[in-house]
Amino acid sequence: MLHSSAYILAIAIGFLSHWTYFIHGEHHMQAPLYGCILLASIPILYFLELKLHTHVPSQAIKGGLQIMAAYLLALFTSITVYRLFFHHLRHFTGPVGARVSKIWHTWYVRHSQNHLVLDRLYREYGTFVRTGPEEITIFDPEALWAMNAPASTCRRPDWYDLPAPLKSIANIRDVALHDQRRPVRNYESRITKSGEQLDEQLTAANGKPLNMHDYFSFYTSDVMSVLAFGKSFNNLQKQSFHPSVQGVRDFMGVFGTLTPIPWFVRLGSVILRRLNGWKSFIDFTKHHMNERIMKEPPEPDVSSYLIAASMEKGTLEEDRALLEGDALVLLIVGSDSMATTLINIVANLCRYPVYQHKIRREVATLSSISDFDAVLDLPILGSVFKETLRLWPPVPTGSGRIVPEGGLLIAGRYIPAGTKIFAPRYTIARMESCFEKANEFIPERWTIKPEMVKNRHGYSPWSIGRYSCVGQRLAMRNISYIIALLISKYDIEFAPYDDGTRVIRDMQDNFTANPGQLDLIFKLRSKEQITA
Predict the structure, then answer these.
(1) What pLDDT is attached to residue 527?
(2) What's the rounded Cα separation, in Å, for the pair 424 and 196?
(3) Is residue 301 a contact partner of residue 143, using CB atoms and an 8 Å limit?
(4) pLDDT tens figures, 110-152
(5) Can you give the pLDDT at residue 519?
(6) Whole-angstrom Cα distance, residue 11 to residue 122?
(7) What sections of 364-424 are H helices per DSSP?
(8) Per-residue model confidence (pLDDT) at position 172
(9) Bridge-partner residues for 155, per DSSP?
(10) Where does heme bind (predicted)?
(11) Higher pLDDT among residues 183 and 153, named by residue
(12) What is the C-alpha to C-alpha distance for residues 126 and 93, in angstroms, rounded to an integer?
């Protein structure tokens, strides 16, 4: 076995690697490389041990592993002591485990309900909570403004590198490049066609209970595939998800747990089979985007304008990762956020059927439900929409930001530069300091009772500023149209065995929210009732 000096050297290298390397910069993108180096060092240490100090294989293996253990013990001891007692965030309160490692957070969100975990931390620790070694979660609407306001110089954190090498409007960390890719146009004809297909499915059910979690997801996935590639996945027609879509949905269930540790997602995508759904979906997106580049559809889609811009600049080949990334965002984030909002709005209309009647009277004043601008301007429908988004934002926790040079003063507390900060929308929108009767569903706060809104900065379901949801207007027009269509044609109610608790109780926070199951009955109204 190697002499004791080998252990001392391993311990010294462990401390030095922390203080000279790992303590600086970001390392999540190198996680697979570090894993390979760690694995490769085991046979190297074995052969050194076998060659220099023993000819017994079992002793050589033991010696090599002991040296590795000495290095890792020193490295993690140094990291732990530094983060607990010397780190510049040491004065912020929070769970001890969270101050040491984000693995603590991952354990507590193993059921993919990060929004509830953070809400409990707020009630235990208050406005500022250290939820990670380099991370502060701030439960104050001022934080939302500081992070996302148009003049904010905060930048996006490591989480946005997960789709690499693909880039998109949603994950670009370069500010200038992000601003170039923001414009999104309207695509009403594509939406109405998919809406008619959804309507046909509901009519065909003839009053039987339907799992609307799936049906709304079928619908939004079809719409987004048409907008991204000029062709539909036909989920509604088949009443099942395209295999690649199902694969990424399975991955998102894992993603909700692994969100706090992006380095593990990078590592896991190499070694874990359950994350293969993510890789296969990326390959699927690349394939269809290549097909889309080669063939322009009869009617322009989102990709039409992005491809045309790249061709005009002569950068089509260089922009392929961007084109593929933008399509990926449409198919995942766009689809999920719209489906989530549709599910929650319709659930609220079943809990409070009086709003079905009120919206129906509004819709009856329109010359056409396909007049998207007119539908979007309906005050009661809009208030139900806004109140649903307030209580159940499509992105419950929101994405973090990194504090710029010079630090930030938020809610009277100084946050050092380089700190990753979060401001959970789910909890902030339920604070009495922002909204009167904050946990109650009261759409009138957005119309005839404005005094119930105490601090408008607490309402940020689509975020604000340059990093606000680029597709929010498209989503609002799409969702408003579908709600108007359904309310005008159907009386909607919970299935006899569904009281609407599962959709809230079982909601997952997988970056985008994933509500629980919702089974509804759509009773077709008579022609006289529809035209009345």
Answers:
(1) 67
(2) 36
(3) no
(4) 999 999 999 999 999 999 999 999 999 999 999 999 998 888 8
(5) 98
(6) 39
(7) 372-376, 379-391
(8) 43
(9) 402
(10) 469
(11) 153
(12) 9
Which pLDDT score, from 0 to 100, does residue 174 have? 44
Q: Across the strands, what pairs with 493?
A: 521
In the numeric block, which tokens belong to residue 209? 């209970």
In this structure, are strands 512-514 and 519-524 parallel, antiparallel, or unpaired? unpaired
Written as six digits, the tokens of 306 are 């992005």
Q: Which helix (H) or strand (E) holds 320?
A: helix 320-329
Q: Are strands 512-514 and 420-422 parallel, antiparallel or unpaired?
A: unpaired
Pairwise CA distance, residues 136 & 401, whole Å? 10
Q: 236: closest CA among 335, 326, 304? A: 335
Q: Going by DSSP bridges, is the β-strand pair 508-510/413-415 parallel, antiparallel, or unpaired?
A: unpaired
Q: Quick: pLDDT tens for 305-363.
A: 778 878 888 888 777 877 877 777 777 777 899 999 999 999 999 999 999 999 999 99
From 398, 422, 406, select the one nearest 102 (Cα to Cα): 422
350 annotated among ligand-binding-site residues = no
Helices (H) and strands (E) in the chain, counts: 24, 11
Q: Token pair of 208, please?
A: 């039987």
Q: Is 418 exposed, middle or buried (0-12, 13-18, 19+ CB in 10 A)?
A: middle
Q: Please write the tens of the pLDDT for every residue from 26-66.
A: 776 777 788 788 888 888 887 887 777 777 788 888 888 98
Q: Which residue has the tokens 């101050």?
A: 99
Residue 235 structure tokens: 């989920």
In one-letter notation, the amino acid at residue 440 is E
How does DSSP classify residue 334? I
Q: Does residue 171 register a pLDDT over 80?
A: no
Identity of the residue numbered 8: I
CB 381 within 8 A of CB 439: no
- Angle between helix 472-489 and helix 354-363 axes, rounded to 10 deg: 100
Q: Which residues contact 144 (CB under 8 A, 6 or more apart)?
A: 398, 423, 425, 428, 457, 458, 460, 463, 464
Q: What are phi and psi of 450, to 5 degrees?
A: -65, -20
* Cβ atoms of 159 and 400 closer than 8 Å: yes
Which three-class secondary structure state does DSSP give residue 453?
A: strand
Check whether 453 has a pLDDT greater than 80: yes
Q: Tell me what percent of the residues of the chain surpass a pLDDT of 70.
A: 88
Domains of the chain: 4-86 (no CATH), 175-531 (1.10.630.10)
pLDDT, residue 183, reads 43
Distances (CA, A) of 5 to 2, 297, 394: 8, 69, 56
Alpha-carbon distance values, 279 to 29, 165, 210, 414, 513 (Å): 16, 12, 31, 40, 21
Stretch 239-254: mean pLDDT, rounded? 80
Count CB atoms within 10 A of the CB of residue 44.
10
Amino acid residing at 61: I
Region 211-228: what's the mean pLDDT?
A: 92
Contact 240, 249 (CB under 8 A): no
